[in-house]
Amino acid sequence: MSKKNVVITGLGFVTSIGNDSKSVADSLINLKNGIELYAPFADPKIPVKCVGTVKNFDTSSYDPEDWTYPERYSLRRDQLRAFAPHCLYAFCSMKQAIEDAGLSEGDISNVKTGMYTASAGSTGMLYHHMQKLDNSGVARAFPFAIVCSIVGTLSYNLVSIFKIKGASCGFASACASSSHAMGFAYDEIANGRQERMFVVGGEDGDYRTLLPFASMRALSTSADPETASRPFDKHRNGFVGTGGGVVAVLEDEDVARARGAKIYCRIKGWGQASDGYNVAIPHPDGDGVINAVKMALESSDVKPEDVDYINAHATSTPMGDTAELKAIKAVFGPNARTEISSTKGITGHGLSLAGVMEAGFTALGMREGFTPGSAHITELDPEAEGVNIITKTKMEAPKIAMSLSSGFGGANVALVFEKA
Q1: All residues at 6 or more sequence positions from 407 whose CB lies less than 8 Å from its CB, including other chains
Q2: Is residue 346, in this structure, part of any structural domain at all?
């Protein structure tokens, strides 16, 4: 059986650079920075200072009933009580994506529509509720402590709220998680098992989510929001964390066109491979990235010279960016015309959210007619010699684009998109 074409028909965003498609596109075009000094990191004993902050939401309380968020989103008390902060972000993004894709309740709740999610759970919620359990005992513990905190909380909450009846599960491959979710969602539709899939990524992006990375020396110690996240810059010294929620609607192209849906782009294929090297450090020559990219190109029937743009994983860590640059040069050759950028320069690194967020950015650019630049580069890393890194947004959409993601344990994913 021939594979079905898969398209993206809806997007929803709650991110450090905007909480809807219009504001996100404006930030990407003008390289508006979403990174700020983060008040909970003001303690002199904490070496990191910057975070890609989510604006117009206050989820700092451990009681969801104290949260504030835009009035356009309504939730029942019983639904909200089972949320972590990133569940709220993803819920709001889901509402946007449904509206953007023009979906009815019948389109959403049927056995041919599913949902794949990705998050690391809520470290803050888990910490808080386990302390309460220890200090006050089982009888006083919060009954939703598990469902609001552990990995999978996105699936538990959103599948039930939106009455999803098709395929559903959560993915946990660190910073490659939501790219894995998108790849396997593509497979569900391409192979005819589902007609439509929601791909959802979310992260709290708060104190307890991000600070443990400082112990790994992975976070930037810069106190300047304009230079803290600078992928591919010679002087980068770590990533800046961020949170939020992003939802992409994937559909069988025939189904989408039959209902008159707008189309952002077509997903051509994808590939994945592992480094088999180290629990936290990428392979120094980018072996896993090379293999994932080659598999993605093969599955998409695309040649390296056909790829106009790569949204790189590049988090602004010295080792990670270098390994990825080596991989790109190994596949695409020296002095290739393919344009490359990392949007993490303005957003920060969304951890398991990053894959679907950056795929969403790429799809948005393909529909709206732009290729986002790589911000905050003052001196290019010598390893980038022969790589076409663009530092300003180009007002032309790529015809073929790729989005790369990598995670702990050397998990690597490459997604290929085509302008529809």
Answers
A1: 173, 174, 175, 176, 177, 352
A2: yes
Catalytic pick from 86, 129, 349, 376? 349
User: Between 153-161 and 85-101, two packed helices, what is the crossing angle to 10 degrees?
Assistant: 40
Closest CA to 124 of 61, 201, 81: 61
Ordered DSSP codes for 138-153: GGGS-TTTTTTTSTTH
pLDDT tens for 41-70 read: 999 999 999 999 999 999 999 999 999 999
pLDDT in tens, 294-329: 999 999 999 999 999 999 999 999 999 999 999 999
- Which residues contact residue 158 at a Cβ distance below 8 angstroms, ignoring those fewer than 6 apart? 87, 90, 91, 94, 115, 117, 164, 198, 200
Domain span at 327: 6-418
Question: How many domains does the chain divide into?
Answer: 1
Looking from the CA of 81 toward its CB, the CA atoms found within 13 Å total 7
- 349 in active site: yes
328-359 pLDDT, tens digit each:
999 999 889 999 999 999 999 999 999 999 99
Kindly state whether residue 208 falls inside one of the protein's structural domains: yes
CATH of the domain at 12: 3.40.47.10
What pLDDT, on the 0 to 100 scale, is given for residue 1? 67
Active site residue 175: yes
Residue 390 lies in a domain: yes
Distance of CA 138 to the CA centre of its chain: 36
State the pTM of this model: 0.98
User: Is 313 among the catalytic positions?
Assistant: yes
Q: DSSP code of 353?
A: G
Dihedral sign, Cα of residue 372, residue 377, residue 378, residue 383: negative
Beta bridge partners of 249: 10, 198
Identified catalytic residue from 128, 180, 283, 313: 313
- Rounded to the nearest 5 degrees, what angle is found at the Cα of 254, between the Cα atoms of 253 and 257? 80
Q: Which of 175, 180, 283, 376 is catalytic?
A: 175
What's at 400, amino acid-wise?
A: I
| Residue 1, domain member (yes or no) | no
